[in-house]
Amino acid sequence: RGGLRPGPAAPRKLRPPASRGSGGAGSTGGRLMAQEGDTALGVEMRRGAGGARGRASRRWALALLCLAAVPGWLRASDSPSRRHWPEPYKRFDFRPKPDPYCQAKYTFCPTGSPIPVMKDDDDIEVFRLQAPVWEFKYGDLLGHLKIMHDAIGFRSTLTGKNYTMEWYELFQLGNCTFPHLRPEMEAPFWCNQGAACFFEGIDDAHWKENGTLVQIATISGNMFNNMAKWVKQDNETGIYYETWTVKASPEKAAETWFDSYDCSKFVLRTYNKLAEFGAEFKKIETNYTRIFLYSGEPTYLGNETSVFGPTGNKTLALAIKKFYYPFKPHLSTKEFMLSLLQIFDAVIVHRQFYLFYNFEYWFLPMKFPFIKITYEEIPLPNRNNTIGV
After folding, report:
1. Would you kindly state where each structural domain of the chain is located, as residue ranges?
2. Residue 263 falls in the annotated catalytic set
3. Span of the secretion signal (predicted)?
4. Residue 292 confidence (pLDDT) above 60
């Protein structure tokens, strides 16, 4: 949810110590691009921060708030029956090289540092960090709506140094949520990846003024070092951001079709891993922002090749592009308002939504209340009871 402030306080993509770098994380369309060389993580993402696509991305992220305020299309032929929900988040063997077409308003992780190796007998204080999304630009505006960004802080008691670790979008939220329709390409083009970041220092004012900075645990240096190894593996295999949690209804026991993969999920996974390593967390309330879509059981439609390829379903391909067309970037205010009406007509009136998940397309038969933003409590884990994420 992109709650970072740009400039010196923003991190670079992490590079654990004493490890070879892999290809920089970037964006692809439906295809994963081959890795080239041993480029250090984060280097590729610091290339040019184009403004137009970033501004449009932020505008569409704000448009999600408008939809959230609003209280058996055709089944693809030979599509498999999907009965085991939620659909698992797909992990990958490597990160693809970034595509230069994808640009960010704010450069991804410009001031990061390697994760240090701590002494085994060091006591590392762990902090829960949370602040309103885009706090650097809008202050507490989105905080009033409980739209928050999450991170983790650490402090070494031996050295006195502190650090911040978080996970967020490479090209802002809008680009991770909706594709670009490029005239020279048949398929929608996605600028969607997320990655972990680590940097020295904790911006106390950023987290305290409108959010949270509170100690939740103390771990050993050995636990911290084991966590660093896990973060590297998690970061290299979980490469794309997923905005939506898709459920059958707002009821707590309702079926979950798809789960989100965002900053809060990274924080929760890290807490779980620390609990597995033996960390004991304090008993304090911890809440997180989630963005829900509500639908009947999703229909699997296919991947880029099967839908948009030479032998693909042209009618379906056209319907998907027509759905995404109102989300296009570079809109004037007049075009933006017209597009909002078109989105309202598709999602609320005709109850249709096309989801891109695991580099595959799904049709969601939307249900009331369609979309909702919540701020839910998820307890801190303990060694005998980790969080399901």
Report:
1. 123-377
2. yes
3. none
4. yes
